[in-house]
Amino acid sequence: MLDVVVRQDIAPRPLLLLAMLAVLGPLLWRRTHPLVAVAVSFGTLTIVDTVRILTESHGALLNSISAALILAYALFRWGSGREAACGLGVIMLWLAITYVADPMSAWETVAGYGFFLFAAALGAAVRYRAKVRIRDIDQAKAREREQLARELHDTVAHHVSGIAIQAQAGRAVAASHPERAVEALAVIEDAATRTLTELRTIVGVLRATPDAEFAPQPGVAEVEQLASDGQTRPRVEVRLFGEFDDLSPAVGAAIYRLAQESITNARRHARHATRVTVSVTGDADKVRLTIDDDGSAAGGRVPAGYGLVGMQERASLLGGTFRAGPAAERGWRVEAVLPRTGTPR
């Protein structure tokens, strides 16, 4: 509107109105239909400039028409490769015609093309960066699924081995000591129940590599080993509350991994932190893990880091919840709540 009031060398008002509608209207669907938005906008602008050339109308369009740069950005940000190529051809055609309607110097012509090409390049760069981030997030989730599958595989293999040994023992003593055979059957029943529970958990979790780790998987008891003395900064304190005897091995391993990853993140990113407190509480139906540090609020934390993505994926696979963010008073808090049985959603 300011251009209309201040400038005198402008095109006739009907053409100005049509040009403004051509730029502003298609902005509404630039993300969902970028090629259509570009075709409508720059096609209309091409018609306006063609009319100006044929009627020899004097005066330029408004400076606010530069908002069309947003459409060039949107074309390469949300459009497909074919749409970007077609849309860029429409934009280049309009630029060639508008420079006939408004003759400019060679420098101004190059600058005009440069602005639109820069907007297109920026859109392509942002699109590429978004794809890379999505790929990295998917890889982080896949790594966490693989680790969880490996841990569940080892647990199930342990139960199955126990079932086989008890079955052999029961068969050996069945004739001479039937009561011992009954005891072996009770042990087999209990182990089979645990195995079925773990198998229900492992369904849907894919294992990407065939190699396996044969060392026993860590659990809640091993969380205490993550504590450190005062010589290492920040100092790590571990507190366990409640009962963990009948905890699912998958949940115990997840608690350990979440605590380990959170401590590592605190040591890397918690600025001026002196203490990290790890609390594990075992309730009747769930286990709660809380990790707090006293780092500075200006620690430059990255809430969307791929380590946090993996931890959230692990908690979700076991039917739990996960949250990470600034604490109420100071530092950073990580909190995970998992069902004791590790039942997936």
Give me the secondary-structure topology:
Elements: H1 2-6, H2 13-24, H3 34-55, H4 69-78, H5 81-101, H6 106-173, H7 178-202, H8 220-223, E1 235-242, H9 249-269, E2 275-282, E3 286-293, H10 306-317, E4 321-326, E5 332-339
Parallel strand pairs: 1-2
Antiparallel strand pairs: 2-3, 3-5, 4-5
Helix pairs in contact: 2-3, 3-4, 3-5, 4-6, 5-6, 6-7, 6-9, 6-10, 9-10
Entry keywords:
345 residues, alpha+beta, five-stranded mixed β-sheet, 10 helices, 58% helix, disordered N terminus
The helix tally amounts to 10
The total count of strands amounts to 5
Nearest-integer average pLDDT:
78
Structural class: alpha+beta
Describe the 3D structure.
With 345 residues, the chain is α+β, with helices and mostly antiparallel strands. The protein contains 10 helices and 5 strands. The chain has helices at 2-6, 13-24, 34-55, 69-78, 81-101, 106-173, 178-202, 220-223, 249-269, 306-317; strands at 235-242, 275-282, 286-293, 321-326, 332-339. The protein has a 5-stranded mixed beta sheet, covered by helices on one side. Helix 9 runs antiparallel to helix 10 (306-317). The longest helix has 68 residues, at 106-173. The two termini are 56 Å apart. Residues 1-9 and 206-214 have low confidence and may be disordered.
Outline:
By secondary structure, the protein is of the alpha+beta class. Helices cover about 60% and strands about 10% of the residues.
